[in-house]
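Same chain as my last thread, 637 residues:
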Amino acid sequence: MIPVNKGGAALMLKFLKKLFVYEEPSSSDIEMGYEFLEGLEESMEWGEKYGAGKGLKNDLKEQKDNKKDRSGQDEQAGSECRADMNDRESKHPKILIPKPAGKATVRKSRKQKGNSKAEKTETRDSGKEDYEEHSRKVSKSLTENLDYLRKVFHVPKNQDVVIREFNVAHKIPACVVFIDGMVETTIITQFTLPQLMDINPFRGFEGGCALDFIEKNVLPVHQVERMSNFREIIPEILSGLTIILIDGCDECLAMESRGFETRTISAPVTETVVHGSQEGFTENMRTNITLVRRIIKNENLVTEFITVSKANNGRAALLYIEGLTNPRIVKEVKRRIESINVKYISGSGMLEQLIEDKSFMIFPQVISTERPDRVASFLMDGKAVLICEGTPFALAMPITFFDLYHTSEESNVRWQYGTFMRLVRLIGMLLAALLPGMYTALILFHQEMIPTSLLSSIVVSRAAVPFPTIVELLLMEFSFELIREGGIRVPGVTGNTLGIIGALILGQAAVQAGLVSPILIIIVAVSGLGSFAIPNYSLSLGIRIIRFFLIFFGCIGGFYGISAGVTILFAMALSMKSFGVPFFTPVAPYASHNTDTIIRAPIYEQKYKPDYLNAGDENQMGDEPRGWKAEVKQEEQ
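reply #2:
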């Protein structure tokens, strides 16, 4: 707060008049908690309320009324202030006062608010200008087009944008534009420039725009597209295509020439299987689409490319089977993606969060997979799939809870084996979520339910432990999560070694030190193994969070608290939808389906596609999937 008295006010007006009396405060002053009083009367009231002696009110009156004689320092300061006030007769002096602490970062002066609105309007106008600028058409003048491209790509400051000028058939000025490092240079140096600069291929050319003649008779490149708008051309250049501009033509040729280095196809890292394909997606979207098409050799498999981010021009490929996938699902996916207004999206993880129905739910509503065979299975069921640039994962939608703990391996083994693996996974999921909470409830509230021999051993093992049960459990759970996270972040084989050895040494040392009981080590280890058995990474993280949620409820109310927590979780899950499909379909609500949710029937009995998808063709197979079996029966009869 600024101290104000008679002498202090005069001194302040003398030395700080430009900052405090007449000039607007800087943005830093406002952020620090100062604001202008809007008029002279407000300044008077404030001075009367907080001033000492005559206060600021008397000072202001003396500055306004006594315009002639003053003595000493007050007269000199007042005369200087009056001279400035006469120069600015239309303005009243304004006093900069400290704001209340609670309003320091909230309140703004009226002028400051107006400035912020003006800044928003200016930003909006500049964005509109950029949009209009990028919507510019290709000019017939090659010089104008080159000047515009140099301006957009900041050439020559930007040194990886190559603009190669030459003459078509030694006569017509032209150029090629590409990004160095993102193209296969042999396509340009061996199959583009030599053909365009040679006279012989143009012997039949009769004049005019050479674009059509070049496209049909000169270029031996497999994929060429004509474009006329820089809004389409610039993203193609940034994606690795080569643009050919020719003087006298109001269009250009976008030539396929991508050739940047990519990671080779390798086995999936997060979804390993014993029986099944050992190929996983890479960070190259084109390669991933090819991996899917190698499995689904169907002419109805459609691939649509959609731009998902504004600044980095990131693209995603929408895959679906025409005539099989419900058109409403495709329309909804495209609507959500096209309405995204985000400048930067790095990959499928960010896109998943932007298109899911309820982002505050603990369960995922879009399934992520790095296996091409599983993507093919989703497509053949009637789902839609998104493949993004830069990440080795594909997104499939809509999904249900049962899709999250199924794996592709179950289709490649006999139905008994597949059912057994699903049951093991489901039990592991329940143990991971419920076991620590149930242990807390038994120890704190329901000791009578524990057998006497087990209870006595628990009491003996906990005799030397100085912490309450809940503190002991949370300490071990946090330590286990820390070891798991550290094992993931440490590179290579060292991470796995750290996880195993760290858990063994930490557990043994904690028991010997008397910090935890041996039975708690078993509880935490079993629940951790259960979470490892969950095949979907997002679902596994959700179950790990639910574990702490149920520990809290078990600590508060025992089994009644756990029941309340489970009820809340089921109520939330039952209210979820994935692109219009309820999360627990086909169980709740019930829909007709194959025996393939928990118990898996033989593969020849999986005759129908999921009913909740409303696929164009509901049949998965014919009436007699094993025709030879029917022939054998006829022969026996």
